[in-house]
Amino acid sequence: MHYRTLGERGPKVSIIGFGAMTLAPGIYGDMTEGEATATLTAAVDAGMTFIDTADMYGDGHSERVIGRVLAGRRGDIVLATKFGGNHDENGVLRHGLGRPEYVRTALEASLTRLGTDHIDLYYLHRLDPTTPIEDTVGALAEQIAAGRIGHIGLSEVSPRTLRRAQAVHPITAVQTEYSLFSRNPEDGILAACADLGVGFVAYSPLGRGLIGGAVRSAADFGGDDWRRGNPRFQGSNLSRNVSLADAIATLAAEQGIASAQLALAWLLRRGAFPIPGTRRAANVRANAAAADLDLPDAVFERLETLVPRAAVAGPQADESYLANIDR
After folding, report:
1. Are 194 and 167 in contact (CB under 8 A)?
2. What are the C-alpha distances in Å from 318 to residues 10, 15, 323?
3. Between 264 and 314, whose confidence is greater?
4. Residue 44 phi/psi, 5° resolution?
5. Active site members
6. Which residue has the higher pLDDT, 209 or 4?
7. Distance (Å, rounded) from C-alpha 125 to C-alpha 98?
8. Which is deepest, 69, 94, 101, 127, by most CB within 10 Å?
9. Which residues touch 74 (CB under 8 Å, ≥6 apart)?
10. Strand partners, 3
11. Residue 51 pLDDT > 70
């Protein structure tokens, strides 16, 4: 594993982290306690010091697992979590989750679940349409002064929102979905982060399982799998996207690596910090190994030809999900 400073002013983290949404039930299927422990332990043992979660993942379940499993290794990790992404039964973002009083309430709850007295990187999960971003960031800055958080992050925000936030207090990281199958960050937020010295963290870097080959048909989903309602995993869209994943796999095999490793190397080449999630310890170790790849330019040029930006079929999520994203 290799390590780099997150943005210009953040902590030094592993260039590939671990996205802990997979630890929560009801998103990508359930994990046993033993599986969650083995996967999370494998991540840290592989040198993944950057562990990312959120209070809404399994209604706090992911945070509780991390707090329990890593209780004796707190000093080995840079711990990131998020608040303000909760939504109602119709997928509509709840209002008021960016208000200063809610920042304090959510932070206290996360600290308790995680079993720690500080969070290294604390993200606003989604922009609260009822609260000026300046007010939210101001409240987060107060928590930095109090020593309860180390750095401020924002998730799925527009360049305009990032610049407004940065005017109040330095932002360390922006987290957005980014992969070979989701290229929207190239429309502006990547450039804004580079201009402001903000680190860019890529969630779902493997196309929510498509790129890694875990999904071949709808039969691969459990009954409660979130992807059942995602347009990219339905009908002809899924068939098209599986064919793209097969093209990636063929190119990766020619290099003697897995397709997930090639996709992660593509993101690292762009300066992103990918945080792949998985339910299997073996996959964690394989993902970590992507940090050591040194592939020739020609491989990435072929990759861009095989999977051009417009190739993926279907929007990245349904309308209710996309409505919660600040563009």
Report:
1. no
2. 33, 30, 9
3. 264
4. -70, -40
5. 57
6. 4
7. 9
8. 127
9. 116
10. 14
11. yes
For residue 272, what pLDDT band results from cuts at 50, 70 and 90?
very high
- Is 76 strand, coil or helix? helix
Contact 22, 264 (CB under 8 A): no
As a whole number of angstroms, the distance between CA 123 and CA 157 comes to 11
Mean pLDDT of 146-169: 98
| Mean pLDDT score, 289-316 | 94
Region 114-122: what's the mean pLDDT?
97
pLDDT score at 224: 67
Contact call for residues 146 and 119 (beta carbons, < 8 A): no
pTM here is 0.93
Domains of the chain: 3-214+260-294 (3.20.20.100)
Coil/strand/helix, residue 235: helix
**Alpha carbons 124 and 171: distance in angstroms, whole number:** 11
User: What tokens were used for 174?
Assistant: 């922006």
From the centroid of its chain, how far is CA 235? 26
- CA neighbor of 107 nearest in space, from 92, 95, 128, 125: 125
Angle between helices 235-254 and 297-306 (to 10 degrees): 160
Q: 15-24, 34-43, 260-269 — which one is most confidently predicted on average?
A: 260-269
pLDDT at residue number 168: 98
Q: Helix (H, G, I), strand (E, B), or coil: what is residue 200? A: strand
Tally Cβ neighbours within 10 Å of residue 312.
21
The residue assigned the tokens 């491989």 is 299
How far is residue 110's CA from residue 261's CA, in Å, rounded to a whole number?
32
Task: Kindly write down the DSSP assignment for every residue of 111-166, as one continuous string.
Answer: HHHHT-S-EEEEEE-S--TTS-HHHHHHHHHHHHHTTSEEEEEEES--HHHHHHHH
